[in-house]
Amino acid sequence: MMRADPIQRAVDEDLVGVLYAQDPIAFFSHWFSIAVLVSIYWHNMPSPQLFAACFTFYGIANCAGLAMWVWNRRQPGALTPRGWIRLHALRSVLLYSAPGLAIWFAFHSRQAELPLLHTVLLVTLAAGVFMSNGFDRLNFTTSVPLLLLPAIVLHIGSHTFDRTILAIVLAFFFCAINVYAISYRRLFHRVVEARVDQQYLAESLAVQKHVAEEASLAKTRFFAAASHDLRQPLHAIGLLAASLNDPTATSEQRTKTADHIVNNVDALNQLFNQVLDLARIESGVTQVIRMHFRLSELFERVGNQYWPQAAAKGLALRIAPTSIVIHDDPVLLERVLGNLLSNAVRYTEEGAIWMGFRRAGRRMGGFIEVRDSGIGIAQAEQEHIFEEFYQVANPQRDARQGHGLGLPTVKRLIGLLGSELQLRSVAGRGSVFRFAVELGDPVRAVAGLSDAAAAVVLTAQGRHVLCIDDDPSILAGLASLLGRWGCIVRGARDERDALEALATGFVPDAVLCDYQLANHRTGAQALAAVRDALRRGGRENVVTLLITGDMASVELQALAAQGIPVLHKPVTPARLRRTLELLWQQADSARAATSGSGAGIVQGSAVDTMADTVGAAPSIQLGRPGQLA
Ligand code: ADP
Q: Which residue ranges run through the membrane (predicted)?
């Protein structure tokens, strides 16, 4: 049980408090008991030497008990709570054995009333022990039996009627206080448990309150920054557009104003795309498409994008040569590295930027690292820089200095790739961002990342495409577009139409399907029915593609998880074509591989044309299934 340990510890701590709290009172009671016993035996002391030894021991044990109490008060941390409890039990053994065993003297004295007097004293002591040690089983069992059992045995052994009765009464008393002590202990345990529960509840409430406060603060910051960043270009566009109406403006001024408007629209577009990108990653529709590829190629692609910026600032951009092949998603990795390099360049004024791969002790993989000798990030800022719209030093929220969306995107992408973004940074001395990647299989490495895209030739010619959309104008548009690419197209208004087309012998190479269909049917359902029909007809490797304006539905997430390609509206012709060609190419190579030609298989549902990302804003326009801008 989760709380078991804290409760046992709390019980022990409370026990230590209770046990030791009684010790000073016990100290005086024991001196009183010694005085009483010595005085009743004084005139008729059987075996005086033994008696003296026994009572000297009793006195010493009593003083030792007090010394222990002082030690506990002064250095409570010297022993664990359990240790203090055990030590107290040892004290009980020493302290209670003396008066308990000393009743032997009473039975060897000539005074007949001594056993009775001694027994009365023992019962008094046992009652005291019940009060002080009853909470703890160990301390109770190391004291009460020592006090009462010798007396019971000796009374029974005396073989007289009234002594035997006394022995029985004593035995009854012994059992009774044992039973009481047990329920006493249970009660004590329950009280402590309730206290711990309450404490636990109070602590977790405090933590939750803190988390809620932090979240609310972060949300406030987020909305303040986001609304500012979105409103700023909108405001500018509004003012600029109004000035276009100014009849006194020259045509040169108008052209300039129009340029400004275009720039602001671009900025707005870029910001929207960044936000949408984050939302897509978060909603789970971004697909991870892993392949085996040479890391050096990816480094080269990203390096080429950023070295002009680095060179313009007089920074050296060093890319460590590497020959390893990794198994990962090159498109997502390119975005990650693009963001990290762009930050490295932005936040470094002199020195160098380094990008490379390090094994760092990993056998089946290693780390990709991006280092810079820039301004670094103070420790206190390091936990915040991954929050959306958070920027360390841009209080005026100058859009030219970014929006604070790069690192949140990077962090999520790396999470999506199954790794974790690590940061080491010292203010003023630079930063290192790194994350783990898995090694790939050189034999299965794709021929080349750029070539993979370039090698997509006009594979559309002569392909049969079945389009399912309940909007006739879209069907007409698709038919004309695909027809121009040399495809043979068949349109279907719904699932039934599509199945009919198949029944009439139309064998598609691809099925394009809108997500929201008429009669509350979804494209996913239609595609499943079509795929079933095709499978029954012996066609397995048909490319299917879903087109949607929806972004975060549970069904879309499930499709993404199954690797079913999804394109998000608006779909440009170029993107549609590239996606289709890649899917066909992938299906062809999968077919070739299963028929034993040994061609490299591209894993995942579709290979992306990385061409889209080159030179584009790092977060957008990836042109891959599942994340179309
Ligand atoms: P942006 O760079 O657009 O501001 P990011 O999310 O990429 O947004 O980064 C958030 C903040 O983290 C930046 O404002 C910057 O202060 C800090 N930061 C990111 N990368 C670095 C780096 N390499 N060196 C120093 N600071 C950095």
A: 25-43, 50-71, 83-107, 114-132, 138-157, 164-182
